[in-house]
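Appendix B, example 12.
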Amino acid sequence: MNAQNTQEYRSQQPADIANADQARNAAPESVESQSIRVVISSIATRHCDHCGAPIGENVQYRNVTTRDRAGNVTEYAFCSVDCKSARFPRLD
């Protein structure tokens, strides 16, 4: 990653989820990649970026990486295919 790019792990607090549509409209983003990941161990609990459900350890979850117009990278975690499709309807 070059010096101009930043990476952010989104802490999914209720305010984040409530304001997600507003943030998406303000900064259009393009999907860089999508993958399935497993939380091996974590200090903080991950939450679904769509419904807010916790994603526990040793559970597969869907991940989508995006880049906005400014070049900033954001990682989104989803507990199910349905939640990923609700946020990114054009992805399989």
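Strands lie at 7-9, 29-38, 46-47, 54-55, 60-68, 73-78. The first helix runs from residue 14 to 18.
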